[in-house]
Amino acid sequence: xxxxxxxxxxxxxxxxxxxxxxxVAAQATTGALAGxxxxxDGTPVANVRIVATPGDARAVTSTAGRYRVxxxxxxxxxxxxxxxxxxxxxxxxxxxxxxxxxxDVRLAQGTVLLPALSVRSAKLTVPATEVPQAxxxxxxxxxDLLTV
Length: 148
Fold this sequence. Notes:
Blueprint: H1 8-27, E1 30-38, E2 49-53, E3 57-60, E4 66-73, E5 75-82, E6 89-95, E7 100-102, E8 105-106, H2 140-144
Parallel strand pairs: 1-7, 1-8
Antiparallel strand pairs: 1-4, 2-3, 2-5, 5-6
């Protein structure tokens, strides 16, 4: 005996097929990038800022120097690596659909030229005790995370 789909059964079958096709198509348009960032002596470098374009995807390395950037567009991607105390580095990698490209990077020691800092002063016209003041303390790790 042969059964044919009609009504709600047919609609459900068509919807499931469309959803499955859409999921496969979505997976086929992106890939990922992963790797480890090390210093010249081979030790892992934490808190390296990584930016991949196009798409402006961002990541920061772990204490083990590892990173992963997901949902990158398929094709050529330019990846920049920045961390205070190291020379900036830019690489190009090809991302394949549904795959994770691997790019391990060894940063060179270097200096980073920071933008100029302008300081102004003026004499207070009211007593200093009456001026609202905000105070914040930054430790070394927080300074390392600031945008270069």
